[in-house]
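Appendix B, example 12.
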Amino acid sequence: MWRAAPPGDITIDVDATLLNVHSDKGDAASTYKRGYGFHPIGAWCDTTDEPLQAMLRPGNTGSNDTGDHLELLDRALAVLPGDYRAGHEPGDDPRAVRHHIVLRADSAGATHGFVAALVESDIEYSIGHPINASVREALLSFQEEDWCPAVETDGTIRDGVFVAELTGLMDLSSWGIDARLIVRRERPHPGAQLSMFDMSEGWRHTAFITNASALGVDPAVLELRHRGHARAEDRARNWKDCGLANLPFASFTQNLAWVAVSLIAGALLAWAQMTCLDGALRKEGGCNFLQSYRLDRALSLQELTPGRPRRRSVGKKAPLSCVTATEIGCGFGFGLAPAAASAPAGARPRRRAPRSG
């Protein structure tokens, strides 16, 4: 697929989600939101909308587990074509890079070990940063007139949202010499969870760090790019629609195979939408895509069937199983997704971080 339609430079989104289960399954555990189940983490190629890799983890796994992020990074890079991996593996010459890669994550990825691995791999990062005491102190000393308005994808001003760069007001040496910290503020929407600092200032603040080397790049442009990470939440929901939400086995090992099939289903849907569809079907995901697909297929069959038309109904929440998604993808003539590919022969040993406990 990538050989037929090369995406050029790519952006990879990393995000985790909670998966509650209602029966006893292997390695299921309590989650930080008082549920019970798993805490899977996945990587998606934002450029092509397809899943790359994922890991099924116990529900009590920490959000900022450096070892899991490093392992997921290795797996995601391993399934990319060779010319996309060039220059991004440990020990590679930076001059061997053919395709620029940007990795985005929320604050769970803001660990020094993970950021150091990205820098080593010549991967640009854009990762959420907590609003801690250092950030709050820098915000209080930042001049009000230096805030600049945020922008939309078409270049217009985004109302009520402002961006500021605090790189010169903080010590970011622990993140590397090129690290930059950018803060976004907006008026809180109803129901937003605010800190005491946000309530006193009347703004909701979020921050992220990046190693975008060109200091001349407008912080508003970098904030617009980082804002696109929100699409990872939609892809996580689509992943659940592709079968993740219904782990069928009691065995953890068997459920790992089910997760792999759900990734194949997600990739097949992404490829079908990218190459064969347009309009609403190209943008729909998960259950919405299946509902529209079934409706269009039912109408087509009705037009082709002589005599009395048949009545077909499509539920509002039609379940999207791995089998159904795979059948849809195979109907368009696709094979296996990159997520099903194994690591290339002769690959160098991957980076690993020691696990605590």
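The chain has two domains: 10-228, 237-340. The domain at 10-228 is CATH 3.90.350 (Transposase Inhibitor Protein From Tn5; Chain A, domain 1).
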